[in-house]
Amino acid sequence: xxxxxxxxxxxxxxxxxxxxxxxxxxxxxxxxxxxxxxxxxxxxxxxxxxxxxxxxxxxxxxxxxxxxxxxxxxxxxxxxxxxxxxxxxxxxxxxxxxxxxxxxxxxxxxxxxxxxxxxxxxxxxxxxxxxxxxxxxxxxxxxxxxxxxxxxxxxxxxxxxxxxxxxxxxxxxxxxxxxxxxxxxxxxxxxxxxxxxxxxxxxxxxxxxxxxxxxxxxxxxxxxxxxxxxxxxxxxxxxxxxxxxxxxxxxxxxxxxxxxxxxxx
Length: 265
Ligand SMILES: Cc1cc2nc3c(=O)[nH]c(=O)nc-3n(C[C@H](O)[C@H](O)[C@H](O)COP(=O)(O)OP(=O)(O)OC[C@H]3O[C@@H](n4cnc5c(N)ncnc54)[C@H](O)[C@@H]3O)c2cc1C
Ligand code: FES
Known about the structure:
Layout: E1 10-23, E2 26-32, H1 34-39, E3 45-49, E4 60-63, E5 66-68, E6 71-77, H2 81-87, E7 94-101, E8 114-120, H3 127-136, E9 140-147, E10 161-165, E11 172-173, H4 176-183, E12 191-196, H5 199-211, E13 216-219, E14 235-239, E15 246-250, H6 251-254, E16 257-259
Parallel strand pairs: 8-9, 8-12, 9-10, 10-11, 12-13
Antiparallel strand pairs: 1-2, 1-7, 2-6, 3-4, 3-7, 5-6, 13-16, 14-15
Bound molecules: flavin-adenine dinucleotide and FE2/S2 (inorganic) cluster.
């Protein structure tokens, strides 16, 4: 079903082709959906009705992790009722998937040749699709990936990554921003930063990028209901870029990717 006359958003009944546990509480769920695969851009998300019955009643949003031909993958961390159920939903089951939704990372600009992809925890989910699109545009890509411990790091399918863990069990011991500070002098070219992760990480990253005059886009999260601007469940307050005031946006419409300079936290 096409949602709007001029929109690429479709609501699709898809069949799971694989659902693999790839880490503690993290599942990689793959399904075929040519309608979404054809139009998806890095940073877009899908809104999934996990259970045709009522529990949970509302759909749950997930970043598009990977697209290959008509295959779409999401990476889901189990945190509650919907994601726990999704992790136990076997291949052959069906899901109702609405997408692609939201805006996307701004990658088609000539003002950078090196992309720094900074992510934390399950925030690495959108980075594989983004990396692939950057490579096809001839950009150099470095990942900085952080987590509490090595068990939280998801690097499958990624190239050229640097890892930081708080407990030092994998890579550099400290935060991803500490590691970025250490590695930054070794990166060359004109740099743009793309990020997704917990709010404290995004806050520290936004400050780093401001100090170094680097453009930075961040993918945010909020509680979402419809994913298409109807329920007003996803309001987020951001700084304006044109004056000293703030504006409230619907993250499912004007996000999830925003200019990190607009972050208020
Ligand atoms: C645009 C977008 C992209 C996302 N991409 C991914 C992804 O790629 N992989 C992934 O694992 N998760 C992603 N999330 C978060 C994911 O949607 C939530 O973890 C999920 O909706 C929780 O559903 P649940 O039924 O398991 O949890 P619930 O039982 O509803 O809640 C359990 C706990 O999780 C919290 N929670 C619920 N929804 C969210 C949310 N949207 N963000 C943060 N905390 C939440 C609740 O406050 C509660 O504490 C994304 C969220 C957004 C908005
Ligand atoms: S999720 Fe319903 S308006 Fe954004």
